[in-house]
Fold these 4 entries.
Entry 1:
Amino acid sequence: GAAPAGHDEVEFSSPPSAADELLDADHDDDAPLRFRRIDNIIGPASPLGFVPRALVAEELNAVSCDEPASFAEAERSPSWRKAMVEEMESIEDNKTWALVDLPPGRRAIGLKWVFKVKRDEHGAVSKHKARLVVKGYAQRHGIDYDEVFAPVARLDSVRLLIALAAHEGWEVHHMDVKSAFLNGDLEEEVYVEQPVGFVVVGKEHKVLKLRKALYGLHQAPRAWNAKLDDTLLSFGFRRSPSEHAIYLRQHDGEQLVIGVYVDDLVITGTNNGNIKRFKEQMAAAFKMSDLGLLHYYLGIEVKQGARGISLSQGAYAGKILEKSSMTGCNPAYVPMESRLKLSKLSSEPSVNATMYRSIVGSLRYLVNTRPDLAFAVGYVSRFLEDPREDHLAAVKRILRYVAGTQGWGLWFSRREKEKPHLTGFSDSDFAGDVDASKSTTGVMFFLSGSPITWQSMKQKVVAKSSCEAEYIAAANAASQALWLARVLSEMQGTAMRTPRLRVDNKSAIALIKNPVLHGQSKHIRVKYHFVREAAEEGLINVEFIRSEDQLSDILTKALGKTKFHELRKKIGLININGEHKA
C-alpha cells in the first residue's frame, strides 16, 4: 500500500512531550519543544516542523469535518450553540472579565471561537467543546505579557509513575480541570473585544478587561500553573525538585503522587481513601471532571488489572496507517532491513517533504509506548530536511511493521513483594552513520523489569573507537539513572537502591572505573566523564553483561527477525489484543 503522490499531510500532532529525547532527529543543537493541546492554547508550531499547526487536533485526534470553521456555521447547530453558551457561562461564573471603556493608548485584542469534537479512546464523539480563544499572536511582549513558561510532566515521568503504581498494586486515577485556563489570575492589564454572538446590546463600543486568563493568551499556561501550584501546596503537597510537574504528599507513611499535564491530573498512591479525599479537595477548589481510573491519557490507552498495567496506542497507530494510506498493507516482521544504509547524499528523486515529516512526526509519538520502533524511527528522522524516495521506502517499511503489530504495547507487572529497583542498559554501535561516521547510543531503563525510559540517539561527536562510543553511551545512561533514582525516591518517600548500569564492552567499563585520565581518554569531552565520577561515588553500579544479553542492542541498529523478536519480548512489549501478524 503505497501512499498516493498527491497525499500531502498526515493530520496528527507530533509529540506533546519529551519524545524528541527518545530518538534521533538530526538537530543536535535544537532543544526539544513541548506544547499543549489546541483547546488549551493556540501556541507555537509543532516540534521540528513535523506538522502544520492547523492540523494539530485535540488529544491527537484527526481533524473532523464535523467541526465548524466559523461562528456563522456553528450557530446553525443546536449542539454547538449549547457548547458556546456553556463556555460563556463558565467564563462569567469565573468572573473572568469586566465590561469597560477602552483606556486611551490601549488596544483591545480580538477573540475567536474554536470548535472541537472530543472523542474517547475508541474514536467515538463524547462531547462538543467550544472555546473562546484570544488571538494571542496580536499580543506585544512586555506590554500584554511577560513570562510564559509552565512545566508539564514528561511522559518519562508519567511512565515511571504508572510503573511504580503497577509494581505496588496501586490504582491510578484521572481528573480533568474544566476550563482550566480561566482560573489563572492575570498580573498584566489586558483588554479584549466582545465575542461575536455575545455582544452586549447598547454597549457595543465597550471592551472587556480581563481579570483572569483566557485560552490563547501567551501567559495563560503560566497563570493557570501558578494557580494550581498554589492550590496543591495549600493542600500539603510539595513539588518534586527533580520534576516540577510531579507533586508529592506523605503523611503517616501514606504516599500520594500527582502528575500534572496542563489540566490533566494523574493520581496514585498507597491509600484509595486519600485519593478520594484529594478528589473532593480539588472539586471544592475548581470545576472538575472525575474520570475515575486512568484509561486514556494524551492518546495513550491504559488498562489496569490485578496483575499489572498496560500502555498502548493501537487506535493512534491505526490513524497513522489510515492517513498515510497504508491500511491493509502487507505486514512486515521487522521495522527495518538489517543491512539497510541510507545517506543524506542519496541520488534518488525527492519526495514531498511535508508529507514525509508528518508521517515521521506521528511515528515519533508512537515511540512513547513502542521502544521497538525507536531506532528505525530515529534513523528516518535524520532525513527530514531533504527526504528522498529511498528514505520514504524505509518509512513505509516501518508502517508495514506497525500494521502487523498495531495492538502491541508495554506491560508493567505487579511485584509488591519486591523492593523497586532500577536497572539500565547502555550500548552503542560504532560509526554506523554513513554521512558523519557518528555512532548511535542506545539506553534503556527498567523498574523491576518494566520498561520506563529508552533513547536511541546519534552521538554528537565522532568516537575514535568502539570503546569510546560505549563510554559516551554510558555517560548518557548515568545521567538518566541519577534523575530516575531521584524522582523514584521522591515518589516512594524512601531512598532507592543504587541503580545498576549494564555495559557489554569491558574496555569501556575499565575506562569508567579508572579514575586516572590517560592517553585513551584525555581527548574525550569533559562532560562524558560524568559517568566515571558517578561510578566512583557509588551513585551507580556499572556491570558487565554479555553482548547477547544486551537489551539496548535493539536501540542501536537494525536487527534480523530472530534477534529482534527475542529482544522485543525481553524489553517488555506484549500483544495487548492477543493477536498479531508479525
Entry 2:
Amino acid sequence: MRILALDVGEKRIGVAISDELGWIAQGLPTLKRQTKDRDTCAIANVAEEKCVTEIVVGMPVSLDGSLGKKAREVAGFVEGLKRRLRLPIKVWDERFTSVQAERVMLEADLSRKKRKKKIDQLSAQLILQSYLDSRIKSCHCEEQ
C-alpha cells in the first residue's frame, strides 16, 4: 500500500509518497505546473510508476474552516484527477503545512533559494505524514 500526497500550488505541485507500510512520508521531485491535462498525466505517471493505491490532496481550508478561491481551484483539480485516475482520492486539511515547512527549513539553516525549491515537496510530505498519523491513530483507537 503506497499513498501519494499532493500540495497543489499555482506554479508547482509538491509530491510525497508513503513507505509500503503507510507509516512514513518521503518527498518526491516537485512537478512544475503546466496545463491541467499535463499535470494530471504527470501525476498519473508517478502513481503508476510507484504502484500507488490512494492519493491525498492537500486542501487549503481557511482558518475559519471555509473554502476560499484557492480551495475551490484545488477541488476542481481533484475532480480532474478523479476523472483520469481509477484510484481513491481524498482531500486533507493542509492548514499551516507551508508555515511548518518554512520553519523546518529555517531551523535547518537552508538558504532562501533552497527553501523555495523544497517548500512544496516538504509541504506535501507534511500533509501525507499528518494523514498517515491519523490513520495509525484511528487503528489504535479501534483496537482499544
Entry 3:
Amino acid sequence: MSSPSPDAESRSTIEMQKAAADGVEPGPPPALPASLEGTARPGRKRRGKKTTASRGPTALSKIRGNGFEGMWPTYLFALSKSAADPDAEYFADPPMTPEEAEEEKNEIYSPDLSFVERMQSCIQRFRSRRRLQGDRTYYFNEYLFLGGVDTNPGSFGGLGRQDLQDLTPAERREATATDVIYGTTAAGDKFYNGDDKIWSVDFANVVAGFISVTLVQITSFDLAKMAVGIDTLDNFLRYVLHHDVCPEYQDDINAALQVCEAARVEWPKIRQLYNFLPGHFNLAAAELFCSKETAENSWSFHRFKRPEGFDAKSVFFSAFALMDEPELFERLSAKNPKLVKEFTSSFELVQVFHPSEDIIKRVKSLVIGDSAGKHVPIGKATFKQTTIQDGYVSPHVRWPISEDVMTLFFDASLLDNMVPGMKATMDICELDAGLRFVQRVEIIVPSFYTFLPQELMRGYKPPVKTNRPPPSVHDPFAEEREE
C-alpha cells in the first residue's frame, strides 16, 4: 500500500492558495490513490435505549431488585442482629392494567384450562418476574423436581437473539422456558404424568418434603442457606395466591405457607438440641449406670461440653430430690439401681412439662457443702412411638414398653427447644427402679417431617433393552467381554 508523498501534498496546497488569490474557483480535490479508494464505511445509526414507559405501562425497571428484598431472616439466632436490614424496601409487583388482569383471569389462568397448563404458565411467569440467581435457582429447581416438574433444558433448544426479536414477551417467555409439566404419559416414570393413582396435587406435603429432607442435605444444615431456600418457596406460594392461579387449592397453599413458618421456628431449635444434648441430667445418668465405653462412643456426649467439677451422683439424685417425683425418688434411694434394659426406637414428642417456678427456686437455692451446686432445673416430656421414613426398608420394631406413652427427663433449657410433634430416634436405658433416660440421640426431625417417594427418583434412568448378559458370581466379567 502506497501513500502520496509530502512534496505532492505541499504543491497541491500552494496551487489552491494561488487560485483563491486570483479569484479563480478551485477545482475538485485530487483523486485518492487506487489503494485508498473504497475503504470508507458508512456510519451506523445509534439505537436509542428504550425507556421504561416505552416498554409498557407495567414494565419492570431494569435496575430493580430480584424480588426478595427485605426477606432476610432476622429470626435465626445464628446470625447477628446487624445481618438484617429492618428498613429494607420490600418488593412488590407493579399493578396490572385492566387488560393484563383480564388476560390473566380469562386466558392465562382461566378456570377452563387444566391445572397443569395454569401451573406451568405460573412457574414461567414467576421466573421472569423474579431474578432467581445462584442458590435460589438451585433451591427452586429442586423443589419443582419434588413436585414432578421437569426443569432440565431440552436438547437443541437454544435460540439466538435474532430468533427472539420478532416474538412478543409472552411468546419469548414460552420459547425460552425450561420448566415442563407433562401431565401425560410423555413424562415417563420420573415426572408428573397425571395418573391420580400415583400422583396427587399436594402443595403442603411437597413443601414439607423439600424443607425437611432435600434442603437439609443440599445446604449441609446451614441455617442461613436454609432460610434463603424457605424464603424462595414462601415467595413463590404467595405469588400463586396473589395471581389466583389455582383457587381450588387455596387452603392447601395456605397450609404450605404454615409449613414455611413452622420451619423458621423448629430448625433453629433442632440445631440447639443437637448442640446441647444430652444435658446435665442424662449425662449424669449415663456416667452412673452405663459403661464408660458406651458413653464415650456416643456422639451426643462428644458434642456436649462437660462442666468443670461435674459430680454425676450429686446432679442425678439432687434432681429427683428437688422435683415433685416422690415415688420415683424413693425407689431410686431405697436400693442401688441397676441397668436392666436398653433399646432403640423412634419417638414423637407428645407434651412438654416445664419445671415449676417453685422447683427453679429450689435449684437456685441449693447448697452442697460450703458452695452452691452447679445444678439446673429438670422437667419431663412424654413420647409415643412413631416411624421416621428415609427411603430404606427398615424392619418393624415393636414398642418395647407396656404403656402407650413414655416419660423422659431433660434439662429445662432443652425443653425450651422442644416442640410437640418433633420426632427423634434415640437409644434408651431403663433402670430396675422404673426410670428411663436417654443414652444416645441418632437423629432429630421437625414436626412436619415428610419423606416423599420422589426423592428416590433423582438418579433414575429408564431401562434400556440390551443383549449383554449381566455379570454374576459365575462370570463377573461377562459384561466387559461383550461387544
Entry 4:
Amino acid sequence: MNLFELTCTLVNTDSVTGNERACGLLLRNYLSECGFSVTMIPVEGDRSNIFATHGRPKVVLSTHMDTVPPFFPSTEDEEFIYGRGSCDAKGILAAQVEAAKRLRAEGVGDFGLLFLVGEETLSDGAHAANEASPGCRYMINGEPTENKLAIGSKGILRVGIRARGRMAHSAYPHLGESAIDKLLDVLNELRAMPLPVDPVLGPATLNIGLISGGREANVVPDEAHADVLIRTVNGTEELRDNIRRMLDGRCEYEFIRETPAIKMAAVDGFETDRVAFATDLPNLTRWGQPLLLGPGSINVAHTDHECVRKADLIRAVDLYCRLVRDLKAKIED
C-alpha cells in the first residue's frame, strides 16, 4: 500500500477507543510483511500496543491508533482525505510507516515504531508502553501540529463536581435545596478563578464540558453534576489547592485525570510552534527525549469534517525521515 492507500485503509478500520483490536492486527500483519520485527504490548482485554523495530531502536516514531467517536469511513478528492481519524491520527500513523519503510530501504537502522491504544481517554496504552521501554534515546510523537515541531504542549486537569440538595415541589422551593443552584454558584466562581500564564505555553484555560442534573422542571433538584477540564501550563499543586479551598464543604469533587504540561527542545532547521492540546508524551517518560510533530490541523480533529491534506502527508514523510536521521547523527557524534 502507498501512503494514501494506507491512510484510507486505517480510517476505514473502526478503532474508536476501546475497539482498537482490528486496527492493531492490521498494523501487526502489515509491518511484519514490510520486514519489521513486531511485538504486541498487552494493555487491557484484547487491546494491545504495536511496537515494530528495525535493529535496536535508538529513535522511535509514535502515535495512537484510537479515535474519538463516531466512526465514519474515508472519502477523498484530489487534495484531501476525509474520515474519522484522517487527521488525528491515522494519516500521521501512515506517514510514520511510510517514513520507516523509506529509512529501512535506504539502509538506516536502529529505529522503531510505537502505535498506542487509548490516547483519546485515559492514555492506558501509553502507561502500559512505559513499562516496556527498550531504552531508546528519542521519541518522535505524532499529533496534528501542521508539520511544525512543537516546543510545548499544554496539560490537562479534569475535575468532576457533584452538588447535592433536597427535593421539594417547585411551588414550595423553601422546603428543598437546589443542587443546581449550588453547582452554578461553584461553577461561576471557578470561571472567575485566576489561572496561570506561562511564557512559552501562554494562559491556562478552563472549560465546563459536561453538566447534568435535576429530575423535572417542577421539582427542586437534589443532585447536579459537572465535569470541568483545565488546560494547564505548569505544575498544578497551587491550582488544586485553590480548587479544594473553593469546593471543600460545598460539593463533592474528584480530580479525575491529570496529564502534565510538557516543554520540548527545538531542532535546527525545523519550524517550531506550541500547541494547546495534551498528548501521550508525559506518560512515556522512559522512551527518551520527547519531540512532537505531525501533519494536519487540530482545528478539524474530532469534527464531522475531519480531513488531512495529501500534500501535508507527503511532506510529513520527508520530515520524519530527516528528523530520524538528524537525531541518530546526534547520538553518534
